[in-house]
Amino acid sequence: MSCPVDLAPGDRLALAPGVVLRAVPEWGVAYAYTPARPAFLELNATSWAILALCDGAPLAAIEEGFAELVRGLAGANRARDVLARGLADLLAHGIVHRIDDDGGPTP
Amino acid sequence: MTDLSRQRLYLRAWLAAEGRLPDPSVAPVRLSVRTAGSIPPKADMARAGYLVVVWTWRARGEVTRADIEAWEEAHIAAIRDDGANPEVPMTDEAGNPIASAEGGAVPARRKVNYHGTVLARTSVFAPPGRTLQSLWGAWGEGRRRLERILTVKPEFLTDDWERAVAATIHAMRLMMEGEPQVTIIDPSLPL
């Protein structure tokens, strides 16, 4: 996938340590607090859906899961593009991070 | 089913209901206090030489939110329609314009500005500025202390400075239980 950040299909992504996530389902948003770089952020439903797939799964599985989640709403190209931008945003804000096989952060 | 699966199903349903896939968005949350009206920042009011007048009063038991809103509409109209109280750009005492932190010019009237009537901040169920909308709702039941907030130019703070709105003040008194408490705050003084 063409991702604004350098990710390989085997890279695994998960919620970054210490990030507090609070979903507000009625509004279709989630709020994230990132203590490492103190910020209070609002994720729309799309970003929240991408984050929900980042449970330590490899990028290839996240891509597959997202395509399944948005099937019927967006074509494959659009889904890939949205996922790439969404992951770049989540990584840039420190909401998700790459993990190694032991579950720790990738150096 | 795990919480995560449930969450994904919910999000799929939410996006399906939207009928489209919105662009992803991660945006900083801007925290701000909202009140029933726009109250300029304290520093701006001090520069403009305004005083803040707060009427705190307790509504009679039979008064409804609709009664207060009807009074408020008349009150706003009386202030708006007073020919001697036109809307003017907010300036400091040297005449320099004051722009609000929100980015636009702060609306101001020459003599008196009305900033809203909100739940008084004495109640634990009434965070400062909570609007009347919740007054008779589940959280506001029975908590009837209100604050009417005005700002005035001190030169108009005379015995008859509220003459232009006397009729609506009288109407407000009819909705009151007991006497109102009137507090005058000078924003130029430190807290």
Can you give a write-up of this model?
The complex is a heterodimer of chains A (107) and B (191). Chain A is α+β, with helices and mostly antiparallel strands and 107 residues long. Chain A has one domain. Chain A contains three helices and six strands. In chain A, helix 1 (45-53) crosses helix 3 (76-92). The longest helix of chain A has 17 residues, at 76-92. Chain B has one domain (34-185): Alpha-Beta Plaits (2-Layer Sandwich), CATH 3.30.70. Chain B has helices at 3-18, 42-48, 65-81, 166-174, and strands spanning 26-28, 51-59, 87-89, 107-109, 112-119, 145-152, 176-185. Chain B has a four-stranded antiparallel beta sheet with strand order 5-6-2-7. In chain B, strands 3-4 form a two-stranded antiparallel ribbon. In chain B, helix 3 runs antiparallel to helix 4 (166-174). The longest helix of chain B has 17 residues, at 65-81. The A-B interface holds A 23, 25, 28, 31-32, 39-50, 52-53, 55, 65, 69-70, 72-74, 78-79, 82, 85-86, 89-90, 93, 95 and B 4, 7-8, 10-12, 14-16, 18-29, 31.
Question: What attributes characterize this protein structure?
Answer:
heterodimer, A: 107 residues, 3-stranded antiparallel sheet, B: 191 residues, alpha+beta, Alpha-Beta Plaits, 4-stranded antiparallel sheet, two-stranded antiparallel sheet, 7 strands, 26% helix
Strand content of chain A: 25-35%
Element string of chain B (H = helix, E = strand)? HEHEHEEEEHE
Alpha carbon gap, first and last residue of chain A: 22 Å
Placed side by side, the strands forming the largest sheet of chain A appear as 5-1-6
Shape-level CATH architecture of chain B: 2-Layer Sandwich
Largest sheet of chain B: 4 strands, antiparallel
Radius of gyration of chain A: 13 Å
Topology of chain A as a string of helices (H) and strands (E): EEEEHEHHE
Query: In angstroms, what is the radius of gyration of chain B?
Result: 21 Å
Low-confidence stretches of chain A: none
Structural class of chain A: alpha+beta
Total number of distinct structural domains of chain A: 1
Mean pLDDT of chain A: 88
Given the helix and strand composition of chain B, which structural class is it?
alpha+beta
Average pLDDT over all residues of chain B: 72
Report low-confidence residues of chain B grouped into runs of 5 or more.
32-36, 123-142
Q: How many domains make up the coordinates of chain B? A: 1
Major β-sheet of chain A, in short? 3 strands, antiparallel
Spatial strand sequence of the major β-sheet of chain B? 5-6-2-7
